[in-house]
Amino acid sequence: NRWFKCFTAVDFFNQINMLYGTITDFCTEESCPVMSAGPKYEYHWADGTNIKKPIKCSAPKYIDYLMTWVQDQLDDETLFPSKIGVPFPKNFMSVAKTILKRLFRVYAHIYHQHFDPVIQLQEEAHLNTSFKHFIFFVQEFNLIDRRELAPLQELIEKLTSKDR
After folding, report:
1. Which segments are annotated as binding site for Zn(2+)?
2. Is the pTM of this model over 0.85?
3. What's the angle, vertex CA 135, arms to CA 130 and CA 139, rounded to 5?
4. How far apart, in Å, are the Cα atoms of 29 and each of 8, 121, 151?
5. CA atoms of 68 and 86, how far apart (whole Å)
6. pLDDT by residue (tens digit) across 17-57?
């Protein structure tokens, strides 16, 4: 569990936060009134604490809620203990999987809604490398249900194919 916290949760959170930060001028309340990944996938926000029932919100608002929620999870010593010898809670993998599932949604949103700006900013290689690393990791340890990956399934197959 310690390797997961140190390597994965924090690393992927920082990477997607940075990548999204470069396209915030393009992802606005007006351009993205709903958090989506193409026309078939719409995401509603609920954190189970402050917002118990899923709400429809803009992509920037959803991503703001998400990044705040993930940071709160990472800072919670009962979920992600930083002291050696302190055990991780029994629900650790469940929380970690939820974090990764939700971070995936930001990748999916960027690819579906903002790929042109990514190309304009010449960040395509960085986005692809970051996403490929993310996907290899979540697939290796079966951390995101295959159905959740559907919005980017074609891209995932291209990035993870053996002859690439």
Report:
1. 27, 32, 109, 114
2. yes
3. 155
4. 30, 21, 22
5. 25
6. 999 999 999 999 999 999 999 999 999 999 999 999 999 99
* pLDDT tens-digit readout, 69-107: 999 999 999 988 888 888 889 998 899 999 999 999 999
Domain 2-160 CATH class label: mainly alpha
**159: burial class by Cβ within 10 Å (0-12, 13-18, 19+)?**
middle
Per the annotation, binding residues are: 27, 32, 109, 114
Q: Which positions ≥6 away from 134 have C-beta within 8 Å?
A: 12, 15, 16, 100, 103, 104, 107
List the one residue out of 94, 77, 95 whose CA is nearest residue 86.
77
Residue 153 to residue 164: CA distance in whole angstroms: 16
Domain ranges of the chain: 2-160
